Amino acid sequence: MVGETRRVHHREVSEQLGVASVESVLANLLHWFDLKLLAGETAENLDISEVYDITTTKKTPLHVLPTSHSSF
Predict the structure, then answer these.
(1) How confident is the model at residue 24 (pLDDT cuts 50, 70, 90)?
(2) Of 9, 29, 34, 55, which is the most exposed, with the fewest CB atoms less than 10 Å away?
């Protein structure tokens, strides 16, 4: 029983580490780039409806143009 508890705990820690890693990468991308809407798009005409399944996703993808706002 003790070994099984350790394996379950290890899997939970691994999942938490994976989520933290993805959040860190996303935060770095958002920090180094400005995201602009494509030509002709405005915030008012964006479709923000969602599809509910195992996870919630946008019905239509959001397309943006990343532009660097700092010099490397």
Answers:
(1) very high
(2) 55
